[in-house]
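Worked Example 4.2. Consider the chain below.
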Amino acid sequence: MSDRTWTVSGLIRAVNELLEQGFSGVRVEGEVTNLKPSGRGHLYFTLKDEAASLDCVMWASRAARLRFEVEDGLAVLCTGSLTVYPQRGRFQLVADELEPLGLGALQLAFEQLKRRLDAEGLFAAERKRPLPGLPSRVGIVTSLSGAALHDMLRVLLRFPHLEVIVAPAAVQGSGAAADIAAALGRLAGSGLVDVVIVGRGGGSLEDLWAFNEEPVARAIAASPVPVISGVGHEVDFTIADFVADIRATTPTQAAELVVAQLERQARRLDEAQSTLLRDLTRQRVLARTRLAGLAGSSGLARVPHRMRLLRSRLARAERLRAVFGRLKERALARLDRAAGVLRQLPALIAAGGHRRVVESRRQQLAQLARARVSRARVAIDGHQRALSHLGPRMVLERGYSITTVAGDPRPLRDASAVAPGVELHTTLARGELRSIVAKRAPRSAESAAATEGDRQPSLFDDQGEG
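Applying the procedure from the previous section yields the following structure tokens:
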């Protein structure tokens, strides 16, 4: 092959075929550096040890399956195939799987999410809320088929007045985290419950993994009511335990925490009832003892006589009260009559003087009214005379007339406005004349000058139709 001349692409293709035959499925340990996630979800990074480094790529379809976050400085075991990247001619490893060295993948993912949420303050003690003292409605987010639900109901239903609302959700497998978060959001945000229990029974880390995922942690943190996490057994810890307001070691203990205050209240009521019964019994015994002692005393024998004496005094008091009542009514009647007489005195004393004042004022008002009416009549007569002198009829009485063209009510002012043969109407003080224009006389110089100049308006100028 040494005499053969290669193209660049042909040589890289041949090398890749050899690499695929001899270096497919290789496992390489190293430390991740230069991590560069792409917008499409691919991961580009370098694996290195003390002496060398190797370019690597993990395609998005493989990277989406990782349970943990790849980060610089992480020691991993990488499984993949060696190739040469044609565009750059660089040697690289296409990674199919990544496993963290030391911690397992799930444990590493747990620690990474725990650090991130803790840094955000989701685990802070000051945001933890106390449980309601006397809850009336409890919500449960769990699987309907699990033993955990049965264990919790056995504890909660010891109190018949306590309502339990169950929001079923898958607690294991693909999509369980989203299912739990959605059920918790619906239940806690409904306003129907005072507290929510999120939980399931025990299992492996993989079985409990849904409670270690970020959607569940965010839903617990966003809950408007307190949340109790009861997942697995006492040795199991999940992210949900850290975010929840209270962590219970088991689902059963979570239910017991809810009813703990109710049980305390029930015990207090029982104790109070027992104390009250003891006190009543003691008081009853004491009363009977005193009654037995009084039954044989001489004072008790005089009680009937004293009762008769008191009844006689009470009867006399009732008779006296009736007498005083009648006297009171008579006195009140006399006072009412006297008050009526006193109220009438001012009117009787002043009646004569008031009549004289009223009559004098009435006469004055009548005189004023007559004077005003007289002045108004005089003014109206003057206005009527002035209007009659200015009216068109008075002008006609002085020898003037009004000429109009037939069919046109406007007064005729200029002879040039009509032609021979036009019918004219002339209104006199008494009667009308109708005539036909024979001819028009030419205007004199004085008449033209008056027309063109500043002529005075007549009564019949077009200030409206005259």
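The two ends are 131 Å apart (CA to CA). The chain has a mean pLDDT of 81. Compare this with Example 4.1 before moving on.
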